[in-house]
Write a structure and sequence with these properties.
Largest sheet: 7 strands, mixed
Order of helices and strands: EEEHEEEEEEEH
CATH topology: Metal Binding Protein, Guanine Nucleotide Exchange Factor, Chain A
Structural class: mainly beta
Bound molecules: zinc ion
Family: Belongs to the Gfa family.
InterPro entries: CENP-V/GFA, Mss4-like_sf
Protein name: CENP-V/GFA domain-containing protein
Radius of gyration: 14 Å
Keywords: Lyase, Metal-binding, Zinc
GO molecular function: carbon-sulfur lyase activity; metal ion binding
Shape: globular
Length: 139
């Protein structure tokens, strides 16, 4: 069980599964949406995340070409997670966890759109796109 919130504390959520697949995503959508060179996300089934408070303040911006919603607090602007309804997956922004103890990213993904000069890979395996299930199982 994990928990997190946005900067202003209006939106709070709980996660009811282990966060065992965490990656640094370097895709252009993440980079632009965060104003950051990459973002660390935990991939979880969508039904394992529950918004406990502030659902009415949660804005959902659809990125239509990737069929995913960028979900953020409309009060303070904190990006909390991305939701892909078709894949039934959520990529949770680990920086919003209030208890991110002993969590480590396994890999860098979507490096093909990375601004590589700015980024240190920290010795992690790096993939040009999103790794296949087979590749993920080897991490
Ligand atoms: Zn907020
Ligand atoms: Zn991304």
């Amino acid at each position: 069980m994990h928990a997190g919130s946005c900067l202003c504390g209006s939106v709070k959520y709980a996660v009811s599964c282990n966060l065992n697949f965490i990656v640094n995503c370097h895709c252009q959508f993440c980079r632009t949406a965060h104003g950051s060179e990459f973002v660390t996300v935990a991939m979880i089934p969508a039904d394992k995340l529950e918004v406990l408070q502030g659902e009415e303040l949660l804005s959902r911006f659809e990125v239509s070409n990737v069929a995913a919603f960028r979900c953020f607090c409309s009060t303070c602007g904190t990006r909390l997670f991305n939701h892909s309804p078709s894949a039934n997956m959520i990529s949770l922004i680990t920086a919003t966890l209030t208890d991110a103890v002993n969590l480590l990213p396994l890999a860098n993904v979507n490096m093909e759109s990375s601004n590589r000069e700015f980024v240190q890979t920290n010795g992690l395996p790096s993939f040009d796109t999103f790794p296949s299930v087979e590749e993920r199982n080897k991490l």
